[in-house]
């Protein structure tokens, strides 16, 4: 992604330090968070300084490399095991988090001494990050073929540059189509409670010059019924082998509405998001986040400061599931870096692949 004349990925590593764009501050401030230990990187994932499945994966991979870089010779194995576990416990739904930590762990397992282990961990983490950039570009190229000139596309949450290191998953086809000269218009669901659509997707689309409008989460049905939406593309945090997909809360209802209105509903994701351990979406853990995210709202005041204000009477309770499951039957196809697949054939993409933990 290009911001203010400079190329960025959402997360990167230099020496033993991890850097990430602080997504909690966008679109109001552009700041880079500096994380000197794996504990700090784990906390940044938990607090959503970085978010979006692929960028969480990249951060977890770099965090796992920090674990290995800080490990002592004596007690190496229990030390890294504990560090990997701390990273694994940060966010439960995004499969790429587990994929990345497992991949670094696997690379380390093949080494013979501490020096080799450190080199292998950093190399694996960098390879994971590069893989996300390449996957996003490939998803973009493939997905753009499904977008016709003058298409109006609905998306939910943020599944762009910020969510998959560069390019993105759901937004990658939009960027590729736009760059190829097709006219596209995006309807971005605001995505309460954290407003990833209004804040992050809107920021990206503005930077890229793609025309768009932010709509309230409950407006999508109206736009669909009016014939104003030609396709829906969303990302995924985890895909079960039967094609059920977990994504940001509110995705499921958009899929049902799309079916009701005969609008194609696509999920875009790299194959690293498929979890061979989940036979259906029922096995995907759904993160429950703090009640405060629903009871408050944050934004920039007229004086330029960022403020959080209450939206409900004091003492209210709230439910805050961060994701929901869209059953495979509502998904037209899944766009991956390996091509476009019907949900019921997604398992063939990971044949032989097993979770290590
Ligand atoms: O809670 P978040 O902001 O991490 O949720 C992000 C999403 O749900 C995205 O749509 C998903 O990660 C796909 S983007 C690669």
Automatic annotation (TrEMBL):
UniProt-annotated site: Transition state stabilizer, residues: 157
Annotated GO biological process: L-methionine salvage from methylthioadenosine
Keyword annotations from UniProtKB, A to Z: Amino-acid biosynthesis, Isomerase, Methionine biosynthesis
Pfam families membership: IF-2B
The protein's enzyme class: isomerase
SUPFAM superfamilies: NagB/RpiA/CoA transferase-like
Catalytic residue positions: 237
The family this protein is said to belong to: Belongs to the EIF-2B alpha/beta/delta subunits family. MtnA subfamily.
Name used for this protein in its record: Methylthioribose-1-phosphate isomerase
Organism, scientific name: Candidatus Raymondbacteria bacterium RIFOXYD12_FULL_49_13
């Amino acid at each position: 992604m290009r911001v203010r004349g400079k190329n960025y990925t959402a997360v990167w590593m230099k020496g033993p330090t991890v850097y990430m764009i602080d997504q909690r501050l966008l679109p109001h401030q552009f700041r880079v968070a500096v994380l000197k230990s794996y504990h700090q990187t784990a906390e940044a994932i938990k607090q959503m300084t970085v978010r979006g499945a692929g960028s969480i994966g990249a951060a977890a991979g770099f965090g796992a490399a920090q674990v290995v870089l800080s490990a002592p010779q004596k007690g190496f194995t229990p030390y890294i095991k504990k560090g990997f576990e701390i990273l694994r416990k940060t966010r439960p739904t995004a499969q790429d988090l587990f994929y990345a930590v497992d991949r670094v762990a696997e690379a380390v397992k093949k080494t013979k001494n501490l020096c080799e282990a450190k080199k292998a961990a950093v190399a694996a983490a960098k390879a994971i990050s590069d893989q996300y950039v390449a996957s996003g570009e490939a998803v973009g190229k493939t997905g753009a073929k499904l977008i016709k000139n003058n298409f109006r596309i609905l998306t939910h949450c943020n599944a762009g540059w910020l969510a998959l290191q560069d390019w993105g998953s759901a937004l990658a086809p939009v960027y590729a189509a736009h760059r190829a000269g097709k006219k596209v218009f995006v309807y971005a669901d605001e995505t309460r409670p954290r407003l990833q659509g209004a804040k992050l997707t809107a920021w990206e689309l503005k930077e890229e010059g793609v025309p768009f409008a932010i709509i309230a989460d409950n407006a999508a049905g109206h736009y669909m019924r009016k014939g104003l939406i030609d396709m829906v593309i969303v990302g995924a945090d985890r895909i079960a082998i039967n094609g059920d997909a977990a994504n940001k809360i509110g995705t499921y209802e958009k899929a049902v509405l799309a079916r009701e209105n005969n609008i194609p509903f696509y999920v875009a994701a790299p194959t690293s998001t498929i979890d061979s351990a989940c036979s259906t979406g029922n096995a995907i853990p759904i993160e429950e986040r703090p009640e405060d995210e629903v009871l408050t709202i944050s934004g920039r005041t007229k004086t330029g400061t960022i403020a959080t204000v209450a939206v409900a009477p004091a003492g209210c309770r709230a439910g805050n599931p961060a994701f929901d499951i869209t059953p495979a039957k509502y998904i037209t196809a899944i766009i991956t870096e390996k091509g476009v697949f019907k949900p019921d054939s997604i398992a063939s993409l990971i044949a032989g692949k097993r979770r290590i933990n």
